[in-house]
Amino acid sequence: MAAVTADTTTLPRIAAATLGDVERPVLAVSSAPAGTEGEGFPVRRTMAGIDYRHLDPFIMMDHMGEVDYAAGEPKGTHWHPHRGFETVTYLIEGQFIHQDTHGGGGVITEGSTQWMTAGAGLLHIETPPEKLVEEGGLFHGFQLWVNLPAKDKFLSPNYQGISSGQITLLASADGGSLLRVIAGEVDGHQGPGSTHTPITLLHASVSPGAQLSMPWQPTYNALAYVMAGTGTVGPKAEPIYAGQLAVFGPGDRITLSAGARQDSRTSSLEVILLGGEPIREPMAHYGPFVMNTRAELQQTMQDYQAGKLGIIPPNAIMPHVARGQRNPLEK
């Protein structure tokens, strides 16, 4: 499953727990409902139903797939707007092509991350490449929305492409877990993502029967989403399964363990761990726009309709339509 692998015996290891550490309790474990996004690709809404006080600064995170498409089936999103936040797309299997009206773009490949600061606003498209559409294949990934504080809502848009080779790789204290740090700091080791809102984002693979205990910034919130496998979370070893999100309470260390036996679809417990400095500002969210007030949302809608968030360029990428299929946009 994991696109980026490494021998944990050769990697830097994070510090083991000490007597002075404060273990974070588990406040809740929730199951992510299924839905569809864009042109109809399947997602799980990992943060649905969670009180925003526990999510801040995160708005939502969609678990895309895992799906094995037949030829002609892969789907993405057509051109659409954003304003007021950042999108982070992390791919495990498959590929996406990105283009935006501020000059950002490229191919997101397995193990890579796209970090797009929408800021003042832009249009963009995320769509599978021609080869994947024509031939089908595995597609699996995540898209996270990170809020921006009021002072940064109108930043100039920006794009970061983080390749799989740039991700910081670490091992747990006992070597039983591989950590892929995309952004933020883990025990003094910095991930490559450049963030406006302070966050930590990583993908952990925990071997069967192993325990991952890691330091966590005490001023951040802490969330753990299981994309595959089974295990336990927190000091009371509460059970958690694929498709579930754990919300942690205050403290400076988080712990999770992989079950001694995993199912046939995964060789380890695969977890997305994330946390950030809460912004603690009012949030007004409507579709692809995240502002502070309803009046700002209304202004954003007017700006979008007036073309102030960008115009689709003449050389725009468009969703590839498989041979023999009719383009749904054609009359």
Attribute tags:
7% helix; seven-stranded antiparallel beta sheet; 3 helices; 331 residues; Jelly Rolls; mainly beta
Task: Characterise this structure.
- A seven-stranded antiparallel β-sheet has the order 1-22-19-24-17-14-13, with no helix packed on it.
- The model has no long low-confidence stretch (mean pLDDT 92).
- The protein has helices at residues 52-55, 130-135, 294-305, and strands spanning 26-31, 34-37, 41-45, 58-69, 77-82, 85-93, 96-100, 105-108, 113-117, 122-127, 137-147, 158-162, 168-171, 177-183, 185-186, 189-190, 199-206, 211-215, 223-228, 230-233, 238-241, 244-248, 253-258, 269-276, 284-286, 289-291.
- The longest helix is centred in the last third of the chain and has 12 residues, at 294-305.
- It has a single domain (11-305), classed as Jelly Rolls, CATH 2.60.120.
- By secondary structure, it is mainly beta.
- The chain has three helices and 26 strands.
- The protein is globular and about 60 Å long.
- The termini are far apart.
- This is Pirin family protein.
- Belongs to the pirin family.
| Tally of individual helices | 3
Q: So what's the CATH class?
A: Mainly Beta
Number of strands: 26
Q: How do the helices and strands follow one another from N- to C-terminus?
A: EEEHEEEEEEEHEEEEEEEEEEEEEEEEH
Q: Which structural class do you get from the secondary structure elements? A: mainly beta
Total individual domains: 1
- What fraction of residues sit in β-strands? 35-45%
Q: Distance between the terminal alpha carbons, to the nearest Å? A: 40 Å
Give the overall shape: globular
Give the neighbour order of strands across the main sheet.
1-22-19-24-17-14-13
What is the level-2 CATH architecture name?
Sandwich
CATH superfamily (homologous) name: Jelly Rolls
Helix percent band: under 10%
Domain Pirin C-terminal: 202-309
Domain Pirin N-terminal: 42-146
InterPro entries: Pirin, Pirin_C_dom, Pirin_N_dom, RmlC-like_jellyroll, RmlC_Cupin_sf
Organism: Jatrophihabitans lederbergiae
